[in-house]
Amino acid sequence: QVQLQESGPGLVKASETLSLTCTVSGGSTTTNYYYWTWIRQPPGKELEWIGNIPFTGSTTYSPSLKSRTSISRDTSKNQFTLQLTSVTPEDTAVYYCAREVRVTATGVRYFDVWGQGTLVTVSS
């Protein structure tokens, strides 16, 4: 019954920082079995994994984006955030937050809950 929803500005100027928040409802971010994830899809391109953060443990970023990416969590608000610095028009995409499930017994990993996505356009 958990739901995720992205929020934040839909238009960002080039060189500025893209900031998004994912609000989790009907559940909790305080678990070691879930990894809270940001994914994006530029127009006409495939989904791109940005990074994730667990309730406890280290944040992991895509190698291609890690120098510009910061993912944080706020357990008191059931939220996690994405900040992408020095954006360019190539960062224009639909941004999704999602929950990754990791089944300890089998090692299986999958995304069981997704937000609806939010389009962020970077203007030049």
Characterise this structure.
The mean pLDDT is 93. This protein is 0% helix and 54% strand. Strand 4 (34-41) and strand 5 form a beta hairpin. The chain is built from no helices and eleven strands. The strands form two sheets. Strands 2, 4, 5, 6, 9, 10 and 11 form a seven-stranded mixed β-sheet that branches.
Short description:
With 124 residues, the chain is mostly beta strands. 0% of the residues lie in helices and 54% in strands. The chain has strands spanning 3-7, 11-13, 18-25, 34-41, 48-54, 60-61, 69-74, 79-84, 93-102, 109-114, 118-123.
Give the topology.
Layout: E1 3-7, E2 11-13, E3 18-25, E4 34-41, E5 48-54, E6 60-61, E7 69-74, E8 79-84, E9 93-102, E10 109-114, E11 118-123
Parallel strand pairs: 2-11
Antiparallel strand pairs: 1-3, 3-8, 4-5, 4-9, 5-6, 7-8, 9-10, 9-11
- Total strands: the figure is 11
Report the major sheet: 7 strands, mixed
End-to-end gap: 40 Å
Which structural class fits the helix and strand makeup? mainly beta
- Specify the number of helices: 0
What are the defining features of this structure?
11 strands; 4-stranded antiparallel β-sheet
